Amino acid sequence: xxxxxxxxxxxxxxxxxxxxxxxxxxxxxxxxxxxxxxxxxxxxxxxxxxxxxxxxxxxxxxxxxxxxxxxxxxxxxxxxxxxxxxxxxxxxxxxxxxxxxxxxxxxxxxxxxxxxxxxxxxxxxxxxxxxxxxxxxxxxxxxxxxxxxxxxxxxxxxxxxxxxxxxxxxxxxxxxxxxxxxxxxxxxxxxxxxxxxxxxxxxxxxxxxxxxxxxxxxxxxxxxxxxxxxxxxxxxxxxxxxxxxxxxxxxxxxxxxxxxxxxxxxxxxxxxxxxxxxxxxxxxxxxxxxxxxxxxxxxxxxxxxxxxxxxxxxxxxxxxxxxxxxxxxxxxxxxxxxxxxxxxxxxxxxxxxxxxxxxxxxxxxxxxxxxxxxxxxxxxxxxxxxxxxxxxxxxxxxxxxxxxxxxxxxxxxxxxxxxxxxxxxxxxxxxxxxxxxxxxxxxxxxxxxxxxxxxxxxxxxxxxxxxxxxxxxxxxxxxxxxxxxxxxxxxxxxxxxxxxxxxxxxxxxxxxxxxxxxxxxx
Length: 522
Prior knowledge:
This protein has 522 residues and is α+β, with helices and mostly antiparallel strands. Helix content is 56%, strand content 14%. The model has no long low-confidence stretch (mean pLDDT 82).
């Protein structure tokens, strides 16, 4: 590895210029990286919902569910499949191997579903219920589709007025922002016309349920009486003869309140490739502008903002890095009693962290709680290599060697140990990257981030630190290395251990096996 150091020293100012440019690029990439709350986990899960009007569960299972399961079982990588059947409906949940391309899998499932031989009542239902789209319908499940911002619009006005404000003022303004996928309101339940059909009376007419739905769809009614008088084909009967028509709230209605006042909840989803922090900040800026135009007494509160968690974590990482730099300067100064040397060592922390972010950007890893945690842990490790390199160069210069010779020979002395120790640390994270399932999905970004930071620290120690180590050092007149206070203390301990080998090894063995007694209480 010394050839890297030789090149860096030969083109010293070019090396430092490249390091400065890379630092700037790294800072830019840090702001350009996608910031998420959690890693971009590819959960290989999908579902299929089928509606079979008025069919008994056993009929739904035999005529629909079994065939849907056959369409899913043909897809490679299927690991788990569960189905739930109830009267008139079927729900099938399928999970596949991690790492599978779910976009291709869902496309194959959709093709298989289209080719199934299903009852006419199932296939023709979308004609009478256009909002259904398809039947059966494929619903891919995406765990990353969580709201980035949740808003609450409340005020001392009617719920209908709040919903109108949300629909006319807030949702259109938010939906048009860059990175926003959708904005939807919930929390308001409006009364609607409900038709409660008596199954026994319907069977007496000889009409299927889908036929009744088809007769009602597309018609405009101005009163409940008109709905009740709607004719049922050629039967001579009306809808009111087989059902009860009423105005009521739909079942499963939700009620939203903020400080006891009626409220509307607005969930804002981002696009899959959008930056969470930038999207959330754009939403909050837009909300501040919209809030100034709302009627008196109507307020917008931010219930959830994912960017807060991310920015707080970034703040914690920055704080840890600053504390680490300060402590590194203090510790190195106490041991070497050279302030400039301490400052050079401290440079390795921000450089290694920034270069690490540049590397993970190349691999498409996002900034999230997992990767930021890895960087926070790496802060205490990235300075080690630079301390070793700088100390050996400092010692050689103090012994009288020219700067260039001290740098090259010093790096040659420690290059193998620091490279092997860094690689040994990296290898520890390899099993984490090979773990399957959701644990693997979580720890692959963690392992990549740690690896990027450690590799960066090694390169900084071998390439950047030597060109920065040309400082004046008070040389010893004898040219010999003078023992420091900590070396003298260590040598005394070492001599005692070598003189009492049996006691030293015996104590170590006792402590090793004694530590197993702690396992039951950990």
